[in-house]
Specification:
The complex is a heterodimer of chains A (245) and B (86).
Chain A (H helix, E strand, L loop, with lengths): L1 E6 L13 H4 L8 E5 L8 H11 L6 E4 L10 H10 L2 E3 L3 E7 L2 E8 L5 E2 L2 E2 L6 H23 L4 E6 L22 H9 L4 E4 L8 E3 L5 E4 L2 H4 L4 E5 L1 H8 L1
Parallel strand pairs in A: 1-2, 2-3, 3-4, 6-9, 9-10, 10-12
Antiparallel strand pairs in A: 1-13, 5-6, 7-8, 11-12
Helix pairs in contact in A: 2-3, 4-5
Chain B lengths: L7 H14 L9 E5 L2 E5 L1 E2 L2 H14 L4 E4 L2 E2 L9 E3 L1
Parallel strand pairs in B: 2-4, 3-5
Antiparallel strand pairs in B: 1-2
Classes of the chains: A alpha/beta (245), B alpha/beta (86).
The complex binds fe (ii) ion (2 copies).
One fe (ii) ion binds next to loops of chain A.
């Protein structure tokens, strides 16, 4: 049994410092790893990252994160990753990590992701520079996610993004903004690599449960969606392998 | 300012943008509904203080509106139970 705790969109800043910590202190009793699905800060400042580092640093489980759009608002993504890294939090951006959980290898590949929309109703890299840049960014990070997933030498492979790979977990959000909430290119990468599960945030008004076209379970763990400090998902690798064969 | 002449759709759009772009709030997940001079806010934020700041930002843009702040402060407690994926 592999127990994955996850939360996204905690949007921390000095005014919310310490809010989550009481619920996190004994995380090791109910989980093996904590995933943070981006939007860790409110404005993406180093000061806010220090709040995140205090909130999630020194826990009794490893913490693996991706950044979200809010974390890029001050153009200091790298500085944020450094501050979090110094607190022992692994920040993934197009790469992966393999953790040993009770003798099982749990691989996590992470990327922020980006928007563009969903199959058949999405934007294309055509026309103005701005439009091409938008979609090319999505294509590039989706590609990184796919490669990072495929490179994981692990018993269980987990995809972690901020933006959503599927539209099912956006239910509750206005349809008109779906293209800003995620991209099917992320799901395509997840399906191609045959990941076991995918976690994302960003869609605060969305829905927890969804699935890719290829049948990979997707969970929107944005804190306003899960309505708690985190949620725990239990995976049984042997059973997942059976299901896949 | 929100004037009598401005269609409510534009007023709502302006308020939503302000709540997302004003550094005091930076909230993208707050819904704004306007009914005459009454504005209703809904969604979730991380603290009571952030909920109160929404009122200020709306007031700075449209002092004539009465704000009904139905925004919830998101739960920060440990969850009950877990999901078993098979
Ligand atoms: Fe968010
Ligand atoms: Fe976000």
């Amino acid at each position: 049994m592999i127990r994955i705790a996850a939360v996204g969109d905690v949007h921390l800043a000095p005014d919310a410092s310490g809010h989550l910590r009481p619920a996190l202190e004994e995380l090791g009793d109910c989980s093996d790893v904590l995933l943070l699905a981006g939007d860790l800060t409110k404005h993406g400042t180093v000061e806010e990252a220090e709040v995140v580092a205090r909130e999630f640093g020194g826990l009794d489980v490893p913490v693996v994160a991706v950044l979200g759009n809010h974390d890029h608002h001050s153009d200091q993504g790298e500085e944020l990753s450094t501050v979090l890294g110094e607190a022992g939090i692994t920040v993934l951006e197009g790469d992966g990590i393999v953790l040993d959980v009770n003798g099982r290898r749990v691989g996590i590949a992470g990327v922020k992701g980006f928007g563009g929309g969903f199959a058949g109703k999405c934007a294309s890299a055509f026309g103005e520079q701005e439009m091409k840049a938008f979609i090319n960014h999505t294509a590039e990070v989706s590609d990184q996610l796919g490669k990072a997933l495929e490179e994981l030498d692990a018993d269980v492979r987990v995809a972690l993004t901020h933006y959503s790979p599927v539209k099912e977990t956006l239910r509750g959000e206005p349809l008109e903004i779906y293209p800003f909430l995620g991209s099917y290119l992320l799901a395509e990468a997840i399906d191609k690599a045959r990941a076991d599960i995918a976690f994302h945030g960003h869609a605060h008004a969305g829905t927890e449960h969804g699935m890719t076209a290829g049948g990979v379970r997707v969970r929107n763990v944005a804190q306003p969606v899960i309505r708690s400090a985190y949620k725990v998902y239990c995976l049984e690798p042997a059973e997942l392998e059976q299901a896949a064969s | 300012m929100t004037t009598d002449q401005e269609p409510p759709q534009y007023a709502v759009a302006r308020l939503r943008r302000a709540l997302a772009e004003d550094p005091r709030t930076a909230e993208q997940g707050v819904r704004v509904d306007l009914r005459g001079e009454q504005v209703y806010l809904s969604g979730d934020v991380a603290s009571e203080e952030r909920k109160r700041t929404l009122d200020q930002v709306v007031h700075d843009i449209a002092a004539n509106l009465k704000v009904h702040n139905d925004v919830r402060v998101v739960e920060a407690k440990a969850p009950v139970g877990q999901e078993e994926l098979r």
